[in-house]
Amino acid sequence: MPASASISEDKALDLEALRQIASGLALTADRWRSWLVADMAARSGIRVVAVDTYDVWILRWAPGAAVTPHHHGSSNAGFAVALGTLKEVRWSDGACTEQVLRRGEGTTIGAGVVHDVVALEEEALSVHVYSPPLSRMAFFDDQARVVVFEEELDPDLAHFVAKS
Asked: C-alpha angle 153/156/76, rounded to 5°?
């Protein structure tokens, strides 16, 4: 673990540690690309690390693929772009902000922060790290105001293909 990373009493990694892990793994994430489904209309993911304090997912994004506004429950997150370009959109107090992330760039998302991720004009690959490990997500309407549904993640889930 990087010297600047710290683990709190509840064994959750801080945001900077998550960003550092994601950025480091993004340097070699292309090796997992062939393990992921290449769906031309959606995204797919595979969990490559699962330990008590965090888990790591590699996501493959078709051009234009998005999640929907969501948050990661009680998990903090960090992600980095390994290939392509992603746009991250956040909502806070009714305001919406956007940032474009290119290969080698990353960001962090605190627990409960509502955001979305969209692949731009090309296929993208990204590394996502969650601490504590991702166990619940809430999905919102397009304006990120109303929870449409909540999902508890199966702890044994290791691969997914999103619905188009």
From this structure: 45
